[in-house]
Amino acid sequence: MNRPVRKQLKGDLFIIVGIAAIVGSIGYESYSFFSRITPQAGVQIVRQSDVSVFKKPLTVSPKYLQGADWQQDPKAGTAYTHWSFICKSEFVMQLDQTKSKDGAYCFVLRAATVDLELPITVWLPFGISTKLREHEDGHRQICARIYADADKIALDCATKLVGHEFVERAPTIPEAELLAAQQARVMLSTSYAERTEAVSLAVSDLYDKITNHGMNSITTSSGVDQAFAQSPTKLTLPQLKEDATE
């Protein structure tokens, strides 16, 4: 069973599934330094023109809770899988003096660096059956299948923003630049979420219906395949240059 919304399980414990994006406005020198940092082991990198995407391996964390922890929502079942397609971004914004006047500053997005993560947490009761454990793993498989191409999707989303103009009003140029970067962050995170998170939620909902939350005879792999085939929200992949992936 997937839970795409914030869920309070017990006391002050919150699980939040959503899109997180961090953006900063930096100069060309610091951007070049950032892009040269050696990534962690297992990080996949794709680059195209002025955009670099670093994708960390997905992580899976099983958590075991006693029955009392489920009492706040007894209709939700006895297991949950939570995930978050995280997209963190840094942008290079260049001020266009010719189009900036009267306190309205125009910035052109020149380059971007994007960091992707996919943390998955599976909440399970003690003494869980093999059938239910396998069902919850189906949600992981769905996310993993989408995340396999998430770097290419993020690269496509960010590349489409290069050259885009952002006009913001603020008392100072640095403040306006931060607002422009924030607008770029929203555009990037929204487009990335529509092509990853939204697909994962649509496919997972169908998967739960097809398998009756793991209660019928349909296998996990068959349920996942059927859910992808039947989902109206499809995974669309961009066409990239052959040398884009490192």
Order of helices and strands: EEHEEEEEEEHHEHHH
Terminal-residue CA separation: 35 Å
Strand content: 25-35%
User: How many domains?
Assistant: 1
> From the helix content, strand content and strand pairing, which structural class follows?
alpha+beta
Using the CA coordinates, give the radius of gyration.
21 Å
- Residue-averaged pLDDT: 82
Helix content: 25-40%
Q: What's the number of helices?
A: 6
- Residue ranges: pLDDT <50 for 5 or more in a row? 3-37, 72-76
User: Got a strand count?
Assistant: 10
The shape is elongated
Please give the largest β-sheet: 5 strands, mixed
Describe this structure in words.
With 246 residues, the chain is an alpha+beta fold. The protein has one domain. The protein is built from six helices and ten strands. It has helices spanning 28-36, 130-147, 150-159, 173-195, 197-211, 220-230, and strands at residues 7-10, 13-15, 44-48, 51-55, 59-65, 80-83, 86-95, 104-117, 119-125, 165-169. Strands 3, 4, 7, 8 and 10 form a five-stranded mixed sheet that branches. A three-stranded mixed sheet has the order 5-9-6, with helices on one face. A hairpin with a 2-residue loop joins strand 3 (44-48) and strand 4. The longest helix has 23 residues, at 173-195. The chain starts with 6 loop residues before the first strand and ends in a 16-residue tail after the last helix.
